[in-house]
Amino acid sequence: MRTTTAWQGTGQSTTLQRASIERRDLRDDDIAVRIDYCGVCHSDLHALHGMTGKPTAGMVPGHEFTGTVTAVGPAVTGFTPGDRVAAGTIVDSCGECAMCRIGQENFCYQGATVTYGGADRIDGTTTLGAYSREYVLRAKFAYLLPEGLDPAAAAPLMCAGITMWEPLRAAGIGAGSQVAVAGLGGLGHLGVKLAAALGAEVTVLSRTPDKAEDARKLGAAALLVTTDEAQMKEAFGRFDLILDTIAAVHDLSPLLRLLAMEGTLSVLGAPLETKVRLMDLTFGRKNLSSSGTGGTKHTAELLTFAAEHNIAADVEVLPSAQVQEALGRLEKGDVRYRFVLDMSDLDS
Description:
23% of the residues lie in helices and 28% in strands. It contains eleven helices and 17 strands.
């Protein structure tokens, strides 16, 4: 076994302690990665609070990271020590089902192995995440980091970015599309950037006008204030796709009314129970959808697209020792737009 240092949970709270954890010895198709940067995702908060069903005792969160390959298994051909890589929310899958065969391992019929709080497919141990200095994973689920992408700002692409990218691609978004992004946070700001780069006209949906200037800087054409009845009425039936990134339970009906005929509302921000009035779908033959991160096909595609269009997250980088501050501020919405932890201080 290999030993590394991590920030580990102490129960259903955001209090993490520095601890030594074990990583497995490399299997034939594994690589070891020294983690340089790890994004702080809102789902980390959900998981630490016991809202996602993952075991909280001993949890090490973190599932969007970049780093440097330090070792490779004997069967690995695509990586060598020294390569800059990125990895996301999935570290293994069955590799045999219909979903895995088309590169949608996020929908693996046997259940993908997630980066933390999952069960290793070989030995059954609980996976420990990337709030740590080293990670060992199957090489198939790591990606060479394209030249030109800053490793800190690229880390959130591996969760927040791909969570936005898959529904955009599924909806066929391109020039002339009308896209709305509900919530301008860690997910939403990347949704704006990606949709605009695909050629869509993008509108941010927000309860207040406070982020109107930010929305325009990110590539949005406008910000619609959802508490303004006149604005909501005027936007009735406008959008082909709404990316709903709101990380709390909320009424979907006002958003469904904004969709064009056969438009899609993709709910992405909250893994929580909700209720839907079917008549809101019936009028206009609308679609209610969701998505869970991404598979290898679209993740590789996203990284290439991001490098070509100079797209990365707007980040605030903190030493990993300030993880408590990052989680606390994230819970209050005090970040524009993604915290990223610099893991190098775990060497000291």
